[in-house]
Structures are given as C-alpha cells and as structure tokens.
Amino acid sequence: MLEVEDLEVRYGAVPAVRGVTLQVAQGEIVGLIGPNGAGKSTTLHAIVGLLRPHRGDIRLQGRSLRQRPPEAVARAGVALVPEGRRIYADMTVEENLRLGMAARPTRAGVDEDLDWIYSLFPVVKEFRSRPAGALSGGQQQQLAIARALIARPRVLLLDEPSLGLAPTLVRVVFSALAEIRARGVTVLLVEQRAQRTVAFADRTYVMANGRLRMTLHPADAADSDRLVAAYFGA
Amino acid sequence: MTVLALIGAQDVQKLVDAVALGSIYALMAVGIGLVFGVMRLVNFAYGQLVMAGAYALYLSSRHGASTLEAILVCFAVVIGLALLMEVVAFRRLRQATPATMLVATFAISYLLQSIAVLWFGTLGNIDPVLQDLRRPFSLGNVYVAKITVVTVVVAALALATLALLLNRTTIGLQLRAAAADFVTARLLGVRGNAVVAAAVVVSGALAATVSVLLPVAQSPLITPDYALRDTIFVLVAVVVGGIDRLLSATLGGFAVGFAVGLMGGFLPTRGEWPFTSSIYIDSALYTAVILVLLFRPTGIFARRGQRAVERV
Amino acid sequence: MRRVEALVQLAGPAALLVLVGVVGSFMDRAREIEFRNALVATAIVVALYVFVGNSGVLSFGQVAFVAVGAFAAGEMTVPADAKEGVLPNVFSLIGDHTIGNAESLLLATGLGGLYALLVGIPLMRLSGLAAGIATFAVLGVTFNILRNWEKIGPGPQTLSTVPETTDLLQGTVGAIAVVACAFLYQRSRLGRQLRATREDPAAAAAAGIDIHRQRLWAFVLSGALSGFAGGLLVHARGTLETRDVYLDLTFLSLAMLVVGGMASLWGAVLGSLLVSGLDSFLLNAENGQIPGLEAPAGTRLVVVGAFMALELGLPRRLRERLRPQAQGAPVEQPSGQS
C-alpha cells in the first residue's frame, strides 16, 4: 500500500532521515518507535509532502507521491494526525470535522461514515457544537483522528497520538485504531511508548539517528524496552 | 434631535463624514487583512488596486460606458489585477520572510504607480461615475451628502456578505482555517492556491468597491498616487487593530478612518507647532502605530495572551 | 590570506568608486552631475547596508536620517544674506548662523546618529515585519514634520541657494569614507557579533550577545552615515524639497540594495552604481537625449520597479537550485523536529 524507499531528508545541510526503506501493506498496522530526534516525524512529514525529500521515493499503491504538495497527498488518500493534534481551537468541533471533508474523494456515504466515527468517539458527537479549544487534550486527540477519518483515507499516519494522554484515554485511542484497521484502513503509527506499540502493531520499526535499526514483533513486546535499550547501549 | 441641536448641524455633518471615511477604511482593512491572514503578506500595493479601479472608471466612462458598465469594468480590472499580482509575484514569495514580502509589494506598488504615470501622466483625470451622489439631502437642518449614506450602507452590506461567506460556506471555512493554520489546512486536503486565490478575489472585490466610492466621497481627481496615503493609513490601522484578526483589523480601519475624518473636520488647519493642527494627522497616526507596535504588538483590539510580535 | 581577501573587500569597491570619479571628470557638466549623483547614491545605500545587511532586519527609516542630515547641512550653509528669503520662519539658531561645508557634513553626521539613537532605543526591540512598519512610521513622521513645520526648515517650499560643494572629488572621497566605515564596522568585533545574530538569533543570544544593543550600534552608525550622505546629497544638488528625501528615494535605495544582494558590501556598491547608471540612462531617454531611443516620462521608475520586483521574486528558485543543500528546505515551516 505505502512504500518508502531509500528516503533521505535534510534540514539545510543536516540529514535528519538517512536512507529509510519501509513498507506498510494493505490493512496492516505498522509501528515506528525511537528516541527523540530519531527522524520519525520527519519521515511522516516527507510522506505527506510537508518536506521535500533529498533522495528516495514514496509510493502509494505504486504511484509516486514525491514532489506532490500536501493537499494532493491528502486527496490521494493519506491522512496525517499531526503531533500536537493541530485542532482549530476557535472553530466548533463540527467545523473541524467539515474541514476534514476537503480530502474526501466523494460525498457519498458521509452519513454512514459519520455514524461510525461518532460510535468510535462519542465525545465528538456530544460536543459537536462546542468550540474545539474547550475540549480536553484527550478529546481533542479523538477529534483529530475523527477529522482525519472523515476524509476516508486509505492510509492513516499518526504522530504520537498518545502523547500527554491519561492511561484510560490511551486505551480509547488504541482500541479505536484496532477498529479503524478492521475497516480496511492501513495505519502507520509513530509512538514513544515502545512496549505498548510493539504489542499492538503487526510490526514495529525501531528508528535512531535517521535510520531504521531493527524490526520488532508482538512476541518481542515483553522484552521490547530491554531490547531497544540494549541496542542503544542505554 | 435635542442632542443635534446642542452640538450644531455643522458638527453633525463632520461626524457623519467621518463615519463614511471610517467605513471606507474598514473595507480596505478587511481587504488587506484577508490576504495577510492566509499569506502573511502585507500588501503595500493594495492602494494601487484602488487606483487602477478608479482609472478604469474614468477610462470606461470616457469611452461611453454607462455607470453600471463602468462599475463592472472596474471590478473586472481590479480583480484581474489582484489575481495577476498573486500569480506573477506573491506565489513566488510564499516562503519569503514577511519583511521581504513587504519590500516586494512596495516595489510592485511603485511599478504600478509608474505605469500609471506612463499611461495617464501626473496631472490627474476626473472620474465622473456617480458624482451626482455628492449632492446633499437634508435631515432637519443637517445637510448630508447622499454618498455618505450610500458609502455606509454599501460598506455594511459588503461586510455582512463577507461575514456570511466566511461563516456559512465551505470556501469560507477553508479560508478561516488557512488563516489560522495554513499547513494543517493543506494537510487536510485544502488546496492552498485555491484558498489564496479566493482571498485575493474577495480582497480585490473590496478594493473595487472602494474604487467606486472613494472618488465620490473624497476627491474625484484620479492621479497615479491615488489612494496611496489612504493605504498607508489603513496599513497603520490594521496594525493598530491587530492584523491577525479580521474583526479587529476592521475595527482598526474604521477607527482610523473615523479619527482622520474627525481630525480633518475639527482641528485647525494651521498650527505653529507639530501635532497642533490637521496637517499633522499623519504624524499622529504614525506615532500611534509605533506605540502600539512597542506596547501592544497584537493590536489594541486583539485579545490578551495571543502569540504575536514576530507574526504581527 | 584572509587579510588579502579582506583588503579586496575594501579596495575593490573603493577602486570602483575612484574609477567613477575619474571617468566623471572627463564628462561635460550635464553628464558629470549623473556621476556625482551615483556617488552620493552609493553613500546612501552603503549607509543603509550597514544596518540592513549586517542585522538582517528591514528598515525603511534610513531615508529619514538622510533627510535630517540633508536639511541640517543645507540650511546651515545657506549664505547669510539669502537666509531671510529661503528660510523666513526658522528659529534664530538656524536663521542667524552659517557654517562651512566641512562643519555642515559633521553636523549632518552627528544629527543623523543622534536621531537614530533616539529612535533606535525603543525600536530596535522589534524585528521582521514589525520593524519594517515601525521604521516606515518614523519616515512618515519625519517627512510630515519636515514638510510642515517652518520653524525648522523651508516646510513645503524648496530649500535653495545651498552651496554645491559636493564635486566629484568630494563625492568620491565621501563615498569611499562611508564604504571604509562600513568595512571597518563589519570587520570589528561588534560587526561580527551582529552578523552572528543575523544567522541565528537564538544561538547568538545563547552565546551572550545582546541582540538589542548590537542592533542599536549598527542602527546608530547607519544613521550617522545616512546623515553624512544626506549632507553630500544636498551639497550635490544645491536645492532640496522634502519629497526628494521620501518615498522615491526610499524605494530607489532599497532597490539598489536588493539588486546588489542585501548581505555584502560589494553588492551594495555594485547595486548602487548599476541602478544609478540605469536610472540616469533612462532619464536621458525620457528627456529625448538619446538618439533613437525616446522613452515616455515615467519609464525610469517602471524599469527600476520591474527590475526590483523580478529580483525579489524570480531568482529564488534559481538560487535554490544553485545551492543543493537547500533542497531539503521545508515546503512550509515544519511543525517540529521528530
């Protein structure tokens, strides 16, 4: 579904991602973990067209997304739930959702999708006429995912969705992801929580210093913290 | 009416005129603020859009166009020129710093003025469109020029339409989103160029409205530097009001227009010392803008606690 | 090696200015004025460069300092017997005293620097767009007051009978002096510190550089040099009106700086001479003095304006292509590093 091949991204002359190759198959959940500054967000930003790759290619169902502006990538079916949620605080919850429609390929089926999204995140329905800025962090995170889903994406990218959330809300987010995958949406999940991500995802890449260092599977979950720590010698 | 009797008919007329000038400045402030919102670009050349529209009115009526036709031509010319600016110049400046963009629009402003000099000379031409609206009508013993009322009504209608557009339509929603956070809007699939074009078209339509009103409300003599001083005042107003928010920018525009109108009407025309007469209005406004930039960088009408300074 | 390179930075522009002066001296009177103007324009632009080029902060205000210097130097050198006619309403301090050319240039320099200091103390806290607008406001206030307050100058009238002492020699020496000051400043510790803040304000602040103070130093030096250049200007022209030192000059000097590339002394000098040359050529064409090329009035600013608009807009992509490491530059500011 989504292929990243030999991706290199630089800030000025400094490479932040150095030759990353990864694939996410249709309906798969793939995790991407690693310490701060490893290049995880940079990889996501390159995929969605916010950063121009210095080298390498990004393909969605075989078609290159390279050099395409962010809106074109979104319309091709790749949705990003950005770090920090990036909710429009001055707009209502409903207006935020309506904005998500911009990348939707067709208007057909909006009501069904909305019903599904509301069943995933009841708070979004409950607070739909409130200003989004009045929502709590966890509620905003749910809104951000809902806003991405209303575009009916083929691939959903999430940048640290559990950051700063209470444990119960983390569970809500992860179980929503499972249902989203059940609908056939492919998920690439960037996370800090190593153990949880490894246990949850089909495969998890470990990234450091701009490179993929190893791949972990759910079976490694119990040992993941130790494995990662051992690898980095921390 | 008793209040009117107290302050005198003359004063009421000045007050009403000041409201009209405030309305015009408010329109210009929205036009500048709208483009700034989505592009972070302060368009110094906005006044030249108004100038081009006024020349379009003059030229088309000289060629026998009716009032309506002349106004249509004016809108077409101004909106076309605004889009041309966006496609030829602004689009290339998307990644430039706000300061570079300011210098660039300053250059465009000069370029357009020079083209006008080349085309029409510096002497000026009279714009005849709607000039009969200058005639006054009376309310009791107060005489008010018809254009004054027309200006206020048209401005109110234009702003109301814009508010509807922004709050009730999809493109309006996308405009607001782009103004608040352009990157996220694009990530959601909002087409950057389309939103910018929409902002530029609306901003051009507002400039065209001003092109029609200003030569009737103020001097009908159109020169290459027409509306330049007004634009500088409005830029000041937008900064004073808080350029980040459309409503407060509009209030700033109105306030400055109103203040200029009042000072022009009530201050003596000559004074021995600076700041004592209406010829020093410019200094007063510029001083105000410096003080606002220093002490309330988000603008005086903006809410407290907004991030600002660098974004101004 | 570095020393040689540095000397070229100074000697190159200086030699170029001497060349302009020498070539100008072979011209007839009408042509010679154009050469003098080019030298004065260079002085103004280099003065502007001292602040904008080194700090990376936009300023529209330098022409205000040029204006103050020009009017001060002009008014104080108007011959005693002509003062009553040219400056009927001024304070007696101005009306009753007349000074020589050299003193007037010193006065212009001092007033320019002082004015820049007064304005700069509050304003140098601003940067980016805010700095651009605030300095524009300073220009606006200066113009408005100079144009209307007849106690300090001719007001809306033209200041005339100013001795035309800026000949080619003085113009050349003056312009080189400004270039030398700019050169010495940017080589100095202060100049290097300011340039560090231009590259990376956060890092510079972390290294203990007081950005506000460094900008203020540059602003004051730039103001003093602008005032000096204003003195040269008024003595080159002999007459001066407030409009001569307002928007047109601001636009032209910014255009010259932009065309040359904002960040180098060479660029500032080359840009000034280039645009001055182009400007004079087109002015002659407008006046029908160039056989076979008759341009209508106004061509000059159209061409210069187009030149500048193009320079600001078009070559960005080109420059990007020339610098491969800029390729990974964000399409938009990235929200945060991963």
> What is the quaternary state of this protein?
heterotrimer
Strand content of chain B: under 5%
Beta-strand residue percentage of chain C: under 5%
Query: Helical stretch count of chain B?
Result: 12
Structural class of chain C: mainly alpha
Helical stretch count of chain C?
15
Question: Spans of chain C with pLDDT under 50 lasting ≥5 residues?
Answer: 315-338
H-E string of chain B: HHHHHEEEHHHHEHHH
User: Termini of chain C, distance in Å?
Assistant: 42 Å
Question: Low-confidence segments of chain B, ≥5 residues, pLDDT <50?
Answer: 304-312
Can you write the helix and strand succession of chain C as a string? HHHHHHHHHHHHHHH
Taken from the alpha-carbon principal axes, the silhouette of chain B is globular
Kindly, what is the distance between the CA atoms of the first and last residues of chain B, rounded to a whole number of angstroms?
43 Å
| Largest sheet: number of strands, sense, barrel closure of chain C | none
Taking the sheet with the most strands of chain B, its summary is: 2 strands, antiparallel
Itemize the secondary structure elements and their pairings.
The complex is a heterotrimer of chains A (234), B (312) and C (338).
Chain A: E1 2-11, E2 14-24, E3 29-33, H1 40-47, E4 55-60, E5 63-64, H2 70-76, E6 78-81, H3 93-100, H4 110-120, H5 122-126, H6 137-149, E7 155-159, H7 167-182, E8 186-191, H8 194-200, E9 203-208, E10 211-216, H9 221-232
Parallel strand pairs in A: 3-8, 3-9, 6-7, 7-8
Antiparallel strand pairs in A: 1-2, 1-4, 4-5, 9-10
Chain B: H1 2-7, H2 9-39, H3 46-62, H4 67-88, H5 98-120, E1 125-126, E2 136-139, E3 142-145, H6 146-168, H7 170-180, H8 182-187, H9 192-217, E4 221-222, H10 228-241, H11 246-266, H12 281-295
Antiparallel strand pairs in B: 1-4, 2-3
Helix pairs in contact in B: 2-6, 2-7, 2-9, 2-10, 2-11, 3-4, 3-5, 3-9, 3-10, 4-9, 6-7, 6-9, 7-9, 10-11, 10-12
Chain C: H1 2-25, H2 29-55, H3 62-77, H4 80-86, H5 92-95, H6 101-123, H7 128-148, H8 168-187, H9 189-199, H10 201-206, H11 211-237, H12 247-260, H13 265-286, H14 299-313, H15 315-322
Helix pairs in contact in C: 1-2, 1-8, 1-13, 2-8, 2-11, 2-12, 2-13, 3-6, 3-7, 3-11, 6-11, 8-9, 8-11, 9-11, 12-13, 12-14, 13-14
